[in-house]
Amino acid sequence: MIHLAIIPDGNRRWAKTHGLPPWKGHEKAVENFRTLTDWLRKNSDVTVLTVWCFSTENWKRDPKEVGALMTMLENYLRKERGTFLENDTKFTHSGRKDRIPKTLAAQIIETEQLTKDCKKFTLNLAVDYGGKDEIVRAVKKIKTPNVTEQSIREHLDHPELPAIDVIFRTSGEMRFSNFSFWQGEYAEWVFTDKHFPDVTTDDLANCLATYGKRQRRYGA
């Protein structure tokens, strides 16, 4: 029972090395993501997969690239609904829905509703997500003046999901970057220099094997 989070860096760099526009890197990443997700469902102890698709800071990018990525995410959800149901996969979304395209927000809500009773595997896509933003939004939802750690946790995007066990970050990046501060407080980190479109199922297997050798002390 493992909650794996992936920060899939390097899509634009992958495209650049192949002489392609940035969104082509995202297209390749989506193709690769399908393969990796299918492998995780069938060949690992991972039961929850969180993937950080778009951060609260990514709005600073070229609007054409952002628009292409939003369309890709919408198409991905539309195409994968049947696969989610066939594989007993619950889909959830972390992040804001008020700034993304309305059509994508609708796809997210519909897919969440369609798969809400699935139990074997959970795919949590973080779109327009930032760790700070999630905590701020959670605090704003609390109706009492007595704000506690427990009350904040209860108002996070998905308090029902377990804490993140391991974070796998690609493309040689080694920083938090405003990811999941709360759920990832004691997560183990594993890094690879590979750009995400080049990551293979062997890389995921190595990530999980590395995690399995770690001794988690939780501050003790």
TrEMBL record:
<dbReference type="GO" id="GO:0000287">
    <property type="term" value="F:magnesium ion binding"/>
</dbReference>
<dbReference type="GO" id="GO:0016094">
    <property type="term" value="P:polyprenol biosynthetic process"/>
</dbReference>
<feature type="binding site">
    <location>
        <begin position="175"/>
        <end position="177"/>
    </location>
    <ligand>
        <name>substrate</name>
    </ligand>
</feature>
<dbReference type="InterPro" id="IPR001441">
    <property type="entry name" value="UPP_synth-like"/>
</dbReference>
<dbReference type="InterPro" id="IPR036424">
    <property type="entry name" value="UPP_synth-like_sf"/>
</dbReference>
<feature type="binding site">
    <location>
        <begin position="55"/>
        <end position="57"/>
    </location>
    <ligand>
        <name>substrate</name>
    </ligand>
</feature>
<comment type="similarity">
    <text>Belongs to the UPP synthase family.</text>
</comment>
<keyword id="KW-0808">Transferase</keyword>
<keyword id="KW-0460">Magnesium</keyword>
<protein>
    <recommendedName>
        <fullName>Isoprenyl transferase</fullName>
        <ecNumber>2.5.1.-</ecNumber>
    </recommendedName>
</protein>
<feature type="binding site">
    <location>
        <position position="59"/>
    </location>
    <ligand>
        <name>substrate</name>
    </ligand>
</feature>
<feature type="binding site">
    <location>
        <begin position="10"/>
        <end position="13"/>
    </location>
    <ligand>
        <name>substrate</name>
    </ligand>
</feature>
<feature type="active site" description="Proton acceptor">
    <location>
        <position position="58"/>
    </location>
</feature>
<comment type="subunit">
    <text>Homodimer.</text>
</comment>
<comment type="function">
    <text>Catalyzes the condensation of isopentenyl diphosphate (IPP) with allylic pyrophosphates generating different type of terpenoids.</text>
</comment>
<feature type="binding site">
    <location>
        <position position="9"/>
    </location>
    <ligand>
        <name>Mg(2+)</name>
    </ligand>
</feature>
<feature type="binding site">
    <location>
        <position position="61"/>
    </location>
    <ligand>
        <name>substrate</name>
    </ligand>
</feature>
<feature type="binding site">
    <location>
        <position position="26"/>
    </location>
    <ligand>
        <name>substrate</name>
    </ligand>
</feature>
<dbReference type="Pfam" id="PF01255">
    <property type="entry name" value="Prenyltransf"/>
</dbReference>
<feature type="binding site">
    <location>
        <position position="169"/>
    </location>
    <ligand>
        <name>substrate</name>
    </ligand>
</feature>
<feature type="binding site">
    <location>
        <position position="188"/>
    </location>
    <ligand>
        <name>Mg(2+)</name>
    </ligand>
</feature>
<feature type="active site">
    <location>
        <position position="9"/>
    </location>
</feature>
<feature type="binding site">
    <location>
        <position position="14"/>
    </location>
    <ligand>
        <name>substrate</name>
    </ligand>
</feature>
<dbReference type="GO" id="GO:0045547">
    <property type="term" value="F:ditrans,polycis-polyprenyl diphosphate synthase [(2E,6E)-farnesyl diphosphate specific] activity"/>
</dbReference>
<keyword id="KW-0479">Metal-binding</keyword>
